[in-house]
Task: inverse folding
């Protein structure tokens, strides 16, 4: 299975165990949240790095999957079509400049996050949670031997790294895991999960979505305390959720739509952290993904049905019409925001086997 980017590939799911890829074409990496699962706190992109016209930070990337940023640089992973084991972890200055390889090749690098000293990512094919100093050095397996396709998403806080192990699509066998940043004993925060994927953390809990392929419409949004304990289901009913972000009060997530509607009935949803009835931030979206939030707005990408039809979107948290920030994108995916800018990856075009992917940014307003 190559669980990299598009819920469109769920069309090909015909039976439990028959899948060769969960997210395999257009979008659907989850929002690559900031370390706290939402908008990036602290680092602020200097004014002038982004403007109303989209800027290409890196071109000719072979199928970029996920990204994050700090005050000076953008970081991303690639999973080249045809040979995902030849992927890599890369960075570039927000002010522009050459691409730097932090770790390449890597066996299917997927989610990525950073703290002030290190980058962290999941090697999906290698089955490891990895880290490397931002200034360069040898990659290290923080959590080796998680198993093929198991490590999915990853986030960090001040003391720990958290990740989801996807498990078996036929049996709820996924887990949510925790490990000190410096290494040590792994802690299982939750087990028996139905394909846990997108992940976020705050000062009190860890949040994730269970994709639940075996039961379309049966996906869940779940949380657990930072040290484990009983899990709480916050929301049900999403279809193949892929994006997740949190703010002080709520969890935001995507529902990719239904096969019967051609995935044109996707939605961006909100549910209180304490639980309650989910509300719709935006409806009639085409495979929405890459959710991020700031104080006033929610941001996401729409996959688009063909090359050049994807879009970067924004809507007010308090309710109101969705606004298209950027149209004409080629399979947009993972998205993050800081105080000034929106950043995302475009997987590339089908005619070029997605070898012409890009890392992008644009001003929020």
Result:
């Amino acid at each position: 299975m190559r669980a990299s980017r598009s819920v469109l590939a769920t069309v090909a799911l015909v039976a439990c165990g028959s899948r060769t890829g969960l997210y395999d074409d257009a979008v659907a990496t989850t929002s690559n949240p900031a370390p706290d699962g939402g908008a990036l706190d602290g680092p602020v992109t200097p004014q002038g790095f982004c403007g109303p016209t989209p800027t290409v930070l890196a071109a000719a990337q072979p199928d970029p999957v996920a990204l994050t940023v700090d005050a000076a640089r953008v970081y991303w992973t690639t999973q080249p079509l045809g040979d995902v084991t030849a992927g890599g972890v890369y960075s570039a200055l927000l002010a522009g400049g050459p691409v730097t390889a932090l770790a390449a090749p890597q066996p299917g690098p997927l989610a990525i996050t950073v703290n002030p000293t290190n980058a962290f990512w999941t090697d999906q094919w290698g089955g490891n949670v990895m880290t490397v100093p931002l200034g360069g050095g040898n990659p290290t397996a923080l959590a080796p031997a998680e198993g093929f396709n198991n490590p999915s998403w990853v986030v960090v806080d001040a003391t720990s790294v958290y990740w989801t192990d996807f498990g078996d699509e036929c049996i709820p066998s996924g887990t949510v895991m925790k490990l000190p940043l410096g290494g040590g004993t792994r802690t299982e925060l939750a087990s028996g999960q139905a394909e846990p994927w997108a992940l976020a953390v705050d000062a009190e809990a860890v949040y994730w979505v269970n994709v639940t392929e075996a039961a379309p419409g049966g996906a869940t949004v779940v949380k657990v305390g930072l040290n484990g304990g009983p899990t709480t289901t916050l929301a049900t009913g999403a279809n193949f959720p892929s994006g997740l972000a949190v703010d002080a009060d709520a969890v935001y997530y995507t529902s990719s739509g239904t096969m019967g509607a051609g995935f044109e009935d996707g939605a961006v949803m909100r549910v209180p952290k304490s639980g309650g009835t989910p509300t719709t931030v935006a409806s009639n979206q085409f495979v929405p993904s890459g959710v991020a939030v700031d104080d006033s707005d929610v941001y996401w990408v729409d996959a688009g049905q063909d090359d050049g039809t994807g879009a970067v979107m924004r809507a007010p948290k308090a309710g109101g019409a969705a606004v298209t920030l950027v149209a004409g994108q080629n399979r947009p995916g993972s998205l993050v925001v800081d105080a000034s800018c929106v950043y995302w990856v475009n997987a590339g075009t089908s005619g070029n086997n997605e070898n012409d992917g890009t890392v992008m940014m644009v001003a929020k307003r």
